[in-house]
């Protein structure tokens, strides 16, 4: 097993069979002491965060697989906080899928005039480009529909 990448919330290892092992961490991201899943700075750890993220990821990958949507997911080991995946070609530097339960951090920076801190967001899912220099821009339906993100 070869260490390939160290991210804020996971470590990535290449397995001998060519697949990858993702080891999820209990690290949390945020700014100014406030947890924000869309932030780019680790502010601490929350025990069980890696396991919770893995459980949610496994749930959605298994739903996609049951619906016949091809993914890179192979399996997950909840006891070890790991997920095994196939190699995948990512878009640009990658995408971030953020599930928000309350209004914090980058969400408030974007919508602060219209939202209040800690306002319930009912599991709002945001998809952003992995691009720290540009503040991880949101991907919106219109950009995808008009092919904006499909051309280099």
3D architecture notes:
This protein has 152 residues and is α+β, with helices and mostly antiparallel strands. It has two domains: 1-88, Phosphorylase Kinase, domain 1 (2-Layer Sandwich), CATH 3.30.200; 90-152, ATP-grasp fold, B domain (D-amino Acid Aminotransferase, Chain A, domain 1, 2-Layer Sandwich), CATH 3.30.470. It has three helices and ten strands, in the order ββββββαβββαβα. The chain has a five-stranded antiparallel beta sheet with strand order 1-2-3-8-7, covered by helices on one side. The protein has a three-stranded antiparallel beta sheet with strand order 5-4-6, with no helix packed on it. A two-stranded antiparallel sheet has the order 9-10. The protein starts with a strand and ends in a 7-residue tail after the last helix.
Short descriptors:
alpha+beta; Phosphorylase Kinase, domain 1; D-amino Acid Aminotransferase, Chain A, domain 1; globular; 3 helices; 5-stranded antiparallel sheet
Report the CATH architecture of the largest domain.
Answer: 2-Layer Sandwich
Secondary structure tally: strands: 10
- Portion of residues in beta strands equals 25-35%
Strand order of the largest sheet: 1-2-3-8-7
**What's the name of the CATH homologous superfamily of the largest domain?**
Phosphorylase Kinase, domain 1
CATH class descriptor of the largest domain: Alpha Beta
Helical residues, percent? 10-25%
Number of domains: 2
Question: How is this structure best summarized?
Answer:
The chain is of the alpha+beta class. It has two domains: 1-88, Phosphorylase Kinase, domain 1; 90-152, D-amino Acid Aminotransferase, Chain A, domain 1, CATH 3.30.470. The chain is built from three helices and ten strands.
């Amino acid at each position: 097993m070869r260490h390939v990448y160290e991210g804020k919330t996971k470590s990535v290892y290449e397995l001998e069979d060519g697949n990858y092992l993702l080891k999820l961490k209990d690290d949390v991201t945020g700014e100014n002491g406030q947890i924000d899943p869309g932030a780019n700075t680790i502010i601490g750890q929350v025990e069980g965060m890696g396991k919770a993220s893995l459980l949610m990821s496994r749930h959605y990958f298994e739903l996609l697989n049951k619906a016949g949507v091809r993914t890179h997911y192979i399996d997950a080991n909840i006891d070890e906080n790991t997920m095994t995946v196939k190699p995948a070609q990512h878009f640009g530097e990658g995408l971030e899928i953020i599930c928000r339960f309350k209004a914090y951090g980058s969400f408030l920076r974007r919508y602060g005039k219209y939202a209040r801190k800690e306002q319930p967001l009912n599991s709002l899912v945001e998809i952003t480009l992995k691009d720290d220099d540009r503040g991880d821009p949101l991907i919106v339906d219109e950009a995808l529909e008009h092919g904006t993100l499909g051309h280099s």
